[in-house]
Amino acid sequence: MDNVVLNNPRWVNAVFSSPDWTWLWLIVRLWLGVSWIEAGWHKTREAAWTGGGMAVKGYWERAIVIPEQGRPPIAYDWYRQFLEFLLRNEWYDVVGWLVAYGEVLVGLGLIVGAFTGLAAFFGALMNWNFMLAGTASTNPVLGLIALGVMVAWKTAGWWGLDRILLPAFGAPWQRGALFGGASASVAEGASARKVWYAEQWVRMLVAAAVAVFAFAALEGALQLLVSGLAVLLAAASGTGRYFLSRRETHDRRQ
User: Fold this and answer.
1) What is the extent of the structural domain holding 244?
2) H or E, element range at 170
3) Mean pLDDT of the chain
4) Is 181 contained in some domain?
5) How far is the C-alpha of 89 from the C-alpha of 220, rounded, in Å?
6) Inter-CA distances, 228 with 35, 113, 149, Å
7) Residue 236 falls inside a structural domain
8) How far apart are the first and last CA of the chain?
């Protein structure tokens, strides 16, 4: 019996692997990155997180409690035992520092598009641990969005530093140029669009700057308005090229 290869739907390849849709992931990772920086920046300046980890200690102590009535915050005994082990060995000092600066580093990695898939992974890992400890908050939403960025790791940071870093460093299963591998493209059709990307680079930087400013410095309706302008600016690059390339392909087939 011949082996049958099941291919992904075309829209899956387009959204998660085509550079034509990097404008979408630019917006997603900017929002996600700003969210992580907002969550972690104040922690880096609080002694409860970086000067002894008392905030983490108190959080763990509340999480491991088993009430006489009702359900405990932690659903899995193995995770409760894991936190008890960390408490006994006073790991809250180190973990507090890791959480505070880790959240900021994850946010920076997502915003500048540097090893975007790894940044999203470590962000999702923190979301996962918070949820296992019984805290929902924004963690399910952030974790789900991070999962999408992880799936789109090849192109999520293409409008960012990953455009340089991924071909240079490669992946565990494919060496990059710095390690003796071939100079690889991280997305299908990227070489054919090289000139177009150079022309759109300035537009991408402007859109990114506008979006970061909107999420970091503005509030309410003004934030929505300015961030909407950034979306339109980025969409003019990605979506316009997507439909133009489809038309060019159609014309060549005629």
Assistant:
1) 189-254
2) strand 170-171
3) 81
4) no
5) 45
6) 17, 20, 21
7) yes
8) 37
Among 14-23, 156-165, 196-205, which stretch is predicted with the lowest mean pLDDT? 196-205
Same domain, 53 and 116: yes
Closest CA to 152 of 166, 138, 132, 141: 166
> Is residue 49 pLDDT above 90, yes or no?
yes
Structure tokens at 116: 């975007």
pLDDT tier for residue 194 given thresholds of 50, 70 and 90: low
> At 171, is the secondary structure helix, strand, or coil?
strand
134 CB neighbour count, 10 Å cutoff: 18
Q: Which of 76-85, 183-192, 208-217, 223-232 shows the highest mean pLDDT?
A: 76-85
pTM: 0.74
Query: Does residue 10 fall inside a structural domain?
Result: no
